[in-house]
Specification:
66% helix, two-stranded antiparallel sheet, two-stranded antiparallel ribbon, 134 residues
């Protein structure tokens, strides 16, 4: 019985200490998210959005993937409402973490030669935007 009580006390204090050590995202930290403003072709965004749907992800990456998919869907919806054509070049706003995750997921995609050109053009636009943001 004493062992059970000691074990329960140990587990309780372990979880309490662990939960206190976890960093909590403060509202101020949420406002500090860097936004990239790359100039990209509308068709490239559509291609990336479609290709992301074919990429395999791990269970631990679900939230990051959903965030990327949600952002690209929002961008594409906004561009459709503005009646942009596939060959139009536009400047979009993408949070840095979403851009990084999109590139990570796209690295797993299998691309044909022509699609590799689109992918490289998109990544180059993000990198150029990140350099000017510094």
């Amino acid at each position: 019985m004493k062992r059970l009580i000691i074990l329960l006390a140990f587990i309780t204090f372990s979880f309490t200490g662990y939960s206190q050590q976890q960093p909590k995202l403060q509202p101020q930290q949420q406002q500090d998210v860097q936004i990239l403003h790359p100039s990209v072709i509308v068709g490239d965004i559509a291609f990336i959005g479609q290709t992301l749907k074919t990429v395999e992800i791990k269970g631990s990456e679900v939230n990051a993937y959903l965030e990327v998919e949600q952002e690209f869907t929002k961008i594409l919806t906004d561009l459709q409402e503005q009646k942009k054509k596939l060959m139009d070049t536009v400047q979009v706003n993408i949070p840095l973490n979403v851009a990084q995750n999109a590139i990570t997921f796209m690295d797993r995609a299998t691309l044909t030669g022509q699609n590799a050109i689109i992918y490289k053009r998109f990544v180059d636009a993000l990198v150029a935007s990140a350099k000017t943001a510094k």
